[in-house]
């Protein structure tokens, strides 16, 4: 398996685990891997959910090891700003009416068959 395939498979595994965790906690998953590409903004949001009327934008970071830093280390101020811009674009493009918006992170650590998840509500 090529590194890219392995990376994509790992990311999909992490997003599957995060979506399952959030569904167990009562969230409604609206969209996965929502993408936009315009002159103003481009990128992807991992998970878009509803929780008690709030839009929850969930950034999922999956890691096999901490050699390149933890999953949470990857949520830099620049990444946070990009996710915020993408969330605004999603709201502009949708008919969704929400009471508020929240940005969560789900950090996923995969060690063989074991998967550990850390859900941070209102992470940024």
What CATH architecture would you give?
Answer: 3-Layer(aba) Sandwich
3D shape: globular
The whole-angstrom Rg is: 14 Å
Strand order of the largest sheet: 1-2-3-4-5
Q: Kindly name the structural category.
A: alpha+beta
| Relative strand content | 35-45%
Distance from N terminus to C terminus (CA atoms, Å) equals 35 Å
The number of helices is: 2
pLDDT < 50 stretches:
none
Annotation, overall tally of beta strands = 5
Order of helices and strands: HEEEHEE
Number of domains: 1
Q: Secondary structure elements and their pairing?
A:
Elements: H1 3-24, E1 28-37, E2 42-51, E3 54-63, H2 77-93, E4 100-111, E5 114-120
Parallel strand pairs: 3-4
Antiparallel strand pairs: 1-2, 2-3, 4-5
């Amino acid at each position: 398996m090529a590194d890219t395939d392995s990376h994509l498979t790992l990311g999909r595994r992490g997003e599957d685990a995060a979506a399952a965790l959030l569904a167990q906690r009562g969230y409604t998953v609206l969209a996965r891997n929502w993408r936009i590409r315009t002159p103003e903004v481009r990128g992807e949001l991992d998970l878009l959910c509803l929780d008690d009327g709030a839009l929850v934008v969930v950034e999922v970071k999956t890691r096999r090891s901490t050699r390149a830093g933890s999953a949470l280390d990857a949520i830099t101020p620049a990444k946070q700003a990009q996710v915020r811009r993408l969330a605004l674009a999603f709201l502009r493009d949708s008919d969704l009416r929400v009471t508020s918006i929240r940005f969560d992170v789900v950090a996923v650590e995969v060690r063989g068959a074991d998967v550990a998840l850390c859900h941070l509500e209102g992470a940024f």
